[in-house]
Recover the amino acids of this structure.
């Protein structure tokens, strides 16, 4: 007999439905015929029954309406089979409506789209300090010409204020980013000041 579940074997849901006596007459007969020749399915059914027993010992009883909904699911799949199709194949067809010959090409296309999409679209950074900036190195000492200037932690108008400068204060310019200068104060404080403060 075979040790692994073959392609002709029913899926785990139908094995479990058989174990719980939820299959109708033709489905039960078909399952019993299959189990007579498949050791792997017998072992899988025994394992599933054991797991259900362990879980049922730990949990509260299932409400009757929930049990009826679960019990109705395999019967609906068997009822939809037309032209005398076996219940096992009907349930499999209902789960995967794509023809088997198209499943691999479609999976490959989906994977390719995923890879291309990840490569093309950059991931936004959630941390402002990790932001990639384009800075131009500048080494100047400038005097503040505005009445007051605010030194901020980040080059953004709403960033945290690190220090306040007054007209005539001298700072060392380290780099430039858009309309902001990265400055070093005489006391060692480093931050960002808008360029308008030096005009």
């Amino acid at each position: 007999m075979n040790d692994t579940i073959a392609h002709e074997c029913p899926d785990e849901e139908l094995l479990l439905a058989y174990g719980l006596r939820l299959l109708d007459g033709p489905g039960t007969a078909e399952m019993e015929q299959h189990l007579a020749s498949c050791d792997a399915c017998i072992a899988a059914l025994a394992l599933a029954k054991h797991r259900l027993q362990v879980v049922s010992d730990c949990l509260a009883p299932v409400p009757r309406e929930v049990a009826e909904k679960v019990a109705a699911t395999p019967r609906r799949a068997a009822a939809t089979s037309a032209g005398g199709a076996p219940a096992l194949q009907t349930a499999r067809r209902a789960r995967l409506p794509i023809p088997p010959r198209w499943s691999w090409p479609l999976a490959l296309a989906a994977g390719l789209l995923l890879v291309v999409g990840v490569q093309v679209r950059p991931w936004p950074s959630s941390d402002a300090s990790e932001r990639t900036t384009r800075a131009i190195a500048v080494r100047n000492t400038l005097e503040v010409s505005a009445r007051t200037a605010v030194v901020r932690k980040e080059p953004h108008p709403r960033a945290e204020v690190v220090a306040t400068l007054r007209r005539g204060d001298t700072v060392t310019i380290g780099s430039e980013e858009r309309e902001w200068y990265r400055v070093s104060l005489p006391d060692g404080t480093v931050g960002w000041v808008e360029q308008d403060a030096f005009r």
